[in-house]
# Entry
Amino acid sequence: MTSESLRFAGSRWTPSVAAASSRRVATALTQRIAVLIVVLIVVFATVDLLPGNGVRAVLGRDATDAQIAAREAALGLDRPLPVRFADWLGGLIRGDLGTSVRGTSVNDMLTDKFPNTLILGGAAILVTAIAAVCFGALWSFFPRSVAARALSSTTIAVIAIPEFVIAVGLVFVFALLLGWLPAVTTTGPSGAPANAAVLVLPVLALAIPQSGWNIRVTRAALDEAAGMPHVAAAELDGLTRREILARHILPIAAPTLAASLATTVGMVLGGALVVETIFNYPGLGTVLAGAVTDRDAPVVAAVVALTGVVITMMLVLADLLRAWAIRTRA
Amino acid sequence: MSISRRHFLAGSAGVSALAVLAACGSNNDSSSGAPQSGGTLRVGALGKTSAIEQDPHQTLNNNSDFLISSLVFDALTVPGENPNTAPRLASRWEQLGDPRQWRFVIAEGAAFHDGTPVSSADVVWSLRRLHEIAGETKVPVTSPGDIVTDGPSAVRITTPAPNRDLPMLLRLMTFTVKQGTTDFARPVGTGPFTLESFDNGNARLVRNPNWYATPPTLDAIEVTRFESTTAMANAVLSNQIDLASNVGAVAGRTAEGRDGYTVMRRSNDVVIPVVMRTSDGPFADVRVREAMRLIVDRDAMVKQAISGYGVVANDVLGTGDPTYDRSLPQRGRDLDKAKALLAEARFDLTKTYQLFTKDEAVGEVDSAKLFAGQARDAGIKIDVVTQDSNVFYDETWLSAPLYTANWGTNDSVVFFASKTMYSGTKWNETGFHDAAFDSAYRRALAARDDATYQNASHDLQRIEYERGGYLVWGMADGVDIASSRVHGLPTLGGFGRVQLERAWLTN
# Structure
């Protein structure tokens, strides 16, 4: 932010404003965390209420009722649901994600997988953000161009296509037909993806559908910002197009774009569950799918908690950006 | 639930992409010849993250884990074609004077990967541990004391009643570990390969040059775990792996059109019968069960539910058994006779019957839906209810009047009799209590010669055919896709698919 635009905004950064802002941030953060806890309660209870016994699923067809009861007692699964949840939540605060119905540490299960999903999701968000800004700007600034017309239809199309269709199409063309990129993810000795090439198709499969929406949002936000009176004033002042964009349009449009991308984080993590299966990618998706099948409430809740924290952080960042932007405009 | 629906759609879409691709080439017959040595075989096998298990005595739900365990460890016996039981860690076995007792002799030169010879104490310890963890279904004895050493290189096992099939029942499950081992992070087995690394269900195994049987020719086997058959098929068709083990009929069909690939069909791999409850309920009348078996269009089931990768069957389980009775007349579709039988039995055609199924074996849900459609031709209204596997085993299995099952061991008639049909079994899927069947079962187990055994086996089959509760419309093949460089692959159905120690690669 430059001093010039601050002057335009007609307000200064003062201690009282700072205090008000941090209060606002604190309130937003508290609300987000409260929502996350409610979500976790719902998830925990839902998995628990699903028909089917997780311990039986693990012990197999041969297990007797006595064996199942013994294992349940050993894992503390015979305690009431609220007690188990409180216990699990207490562990979560200490960084202990609990024990699965197979008796393994959930931390161990997720240590390798969570970073892998973050790499995949983070790269997809980055690609989406770059695509949104570049194509959104192109569309907004040259609304009558061929590119704009192409974007108008393709963005709608890709929003409507689910990730797995894109994924399967990408595999078909780039792996099976052309042989340029690997069809499935290979991992190195550390359990992480072996090289950057294996990430290309899964990242694209996630980023393409999300880009459609974000390009449209960016374009709309830029159009709206460009239509504001101070932009016309700046034009009359003889500022160059680049200056107007950097100082007067992007700062106004940024909070909208940030909010849209923050929402996209959730969509990307959801889509990752499907995309990971198609590419045999070693991430959280397969853990979650297996845990739902096993009725493994601590594992499902742990995955939701981790992704929930990421989404919450992104939403709080977007809140912050908006708070800051509103302040400059106040 | 949206995830499973998406997964399902993902699977179908993957398959259609493959189908398009299949049009691009034609199949190429592989040349064989003398096995060449060296090379690394890259194998894909199914396995769920949540079910990864390295302890060979626990339930190995993942194909990938089972494959790794059976290459690192040796069981006493392994599947064969005829006879269906072949030696492995036990070089030979004999029934003793007391017909309840068997003596298994450990193969000469058998040693662990660290060089320690295998002792009878190791085998006893392993069998007892397996019995403790998995119970009588894996080691059919009453107590640990029934498994004892018999000198330094033999073990003696005593079953509650004479059991001719004990060597068969000990196939592949009885992995021998060193006495006292409970940690399998760095497993020391006796098998044809040693484990070099294991990560997240993926493993690299290297040749054990000192294996007491003929050592493998491959230098190494790399096992990659796949969550879905679609990803595994893509991996083999893009040359990221050399062998997709048990990848399914649909992938097999698409690969058949491609240059450079061999599609292996292993017969008698999986049976997906319709289970009818015989003890009570709407199917208790034998005429109704007979009608159901005349309603099914077996050819259509094989063609559509399992993509033609299989053969029709004849309501008898254990089609791969050397004693399987081919003289029983093959049942075909006869709607008139079926309708007459239903009328005679006063079967209520106004009601809608529920057929429970689950998405477990490839084609299982489809088979249920197809059958429901065929039953309409005879005026029976069947509503297919697809359940989550968990719910199915909690609420439906062993109790509902009509459901689908699936079994992967199909080379023994007596195996099915012992597990699912004689009146004393705890897995009596059809609620079957038949005195003549039980008597034939006991005769089979007590048989001391092949003729008596075969005779008893034929009796079991005839009873199943005439009044059993299974509608066995067909047998699905196991389908593997391999690069044409790969030779010496397993040909047996079921767990026989893990026998990769004789595989080799052309350079």
Chain A touches chain B through 55 residues (CB under 8 Å). The two ends of chain A are 15 Å apart (CA to CA). Confidence is low (pLDDT under 50) at residues 1-11 of chain A. The CA atoms of residues 133 and 218 of chain A lie 7 Å apart.
